[in-house]
Amino acid sequence: MSKDLLQPYVELQRRDFQREIDGVPVDLFTLRNQRGMVVRITSYGARIEQILVPDRDGRLGDVAQGYETLEQVIAGQPSMGAFIGRYANRIANARFALDGVEYALAPNDVSTDPASPRSNTLHGGKRGSRFIPFAAKQTSAQAVEMTLRFDDGEEGFPGTLMLRVRYRVTEDDELVIAYDAVAVDRKTVVNFTGHTFFNLSGDLGSAIHDTLLTVPSAEILEITPALVPSGNMRKVEGSPMDFRTPKAIGADIDADHDLLRAAGGYDIHFVIDREATGISRLHARAHEPRSGRILEVWSTEPGLQFYSGNFLDGRAPRDVGKGGTRYGFRS
User: Residue 6 — very low, low, confident or very high, per pLDDT cuts 50/70/90?
Assistant: First the structure.
């Protein structure tokens, strides 16, 4: 009997995630539907640590990279599974202007490589939401609500900000992530996202090259060598960025293309709906042929960031996850 049949996934234990950080209790929350789907989320960074869904034969498998103890989470990939704020992705040169006032932020994406020098603020700075315990309460067997307060001036951002994130599973095997925030005392900027690393095969250390991806987008945001948007749009037609019809992720990932070279693979924002009317629409569809699992991403947001795990390299302890699995390059 193969190893994956003997132990298809690691059963996470709540006690391994329970402790206080900065005076705030951290816990692990389990959401279930009646069809067998299970999602486990820790309140440290509001991180999704596990998603169990069946393959084509009905066998449950884990499709979300993560860790099996809180200590491993803290030593691990800082963005893996986290809810990102107060500003997801990169802010160039760690500064921005709002109403004529320039704000200097905490630079935490820094490189002195002459080919791609950068000093950006990434995912909210050195202490963004991915490093903070949320206040959390489970509201039903299928839902949990988490809240976080960002203070005025924290990481250089203006204004006190109150964030609420709600995770819910449905009987249609959906994981719904709903979030809202209120600027309490000053105008500010926000850009939130979930940052789950998916591997639909259930073998969380295997490469994702064979996964078939569809993204209904005719345009992408161009990035600079520092991996920030240049402000220019590019058409995907005739380029490795064209996923308007199903294509294996690995088909063009090593093509000689400036944006692929800059990121070491795909780390690109696809324009889905410039108007972003608030109506949920399909942003992406991924099909893993070995397991038969299909992931659809629906969102009310104007675009989708597709990241192919280019900075994973199986390094211990950072990239060693559940069951001792090494999360390798592009897994």
Answer: very low
Q: How far apart are CA 45 and CA 67, in angstroms?
A: 13
At CA 213, angle to CA 212 and CA 215, rounded to 5? 160
Measured between alpha carbons, how far is residue 214 from residues 139, 204, 264, 280, 281 in Å?
34, 21, 20, 17, 14
pLDDT per position as a tens digit, 104-153: 999 999 988 887 788 999 999 999 999 999 999 999 999 999 999 999 99
Nearest to 194 by CA among 30, 39, 74, 313: 39
Do you find a cis peptide bond into 32, omega within 30 degrees of 0?
no
Q: Give the single-character DSSP code of 287.
A: E
DSSP assignments along 132-172, one per residue:
SBPEEEEEETTEEEEEEEEPTTGGG--S-EEEEEEEEE-TT
Q: Which residue type, as a one-letter code, is found at position 239?
A: S
Query: Hey, which bits of 170-209 come out as E strands?
Result: 175-183, 193-194
Contact partners, residue 292, CB within 8 Å, separation at least 6 = 55, 56, 57
Distance of CA 276 to the CA centre of its chain: 20
Q: What is the pLDDT of residues 230-277, one digit of tens each?
A: 999 999 999 999 999 999 999 999 999 999 999 999 999 999 988 888
Angle at 316 between CA 1 and CA 72, to 5 degrees: 85
The tokens of 263 are what?
């990121």
Report CA torsion sign: 318, 324, 330, 331: negative
Tokens of 216: 């209904």
Beta strands 28-32 and 24-26, pairing class: unpaired
Of 241, 254, 177, 234, residue with least CA distance to 215: 241
Q: Which residues contact 331 (CB under 8 A, 6 or more apart)?
A: 65, 199, 204, 205, 206, 207, 208, 309, 312
3-class DSSP assignment, residue 322 = helix
Calpha distance 313→304 (Å, rounded): 24
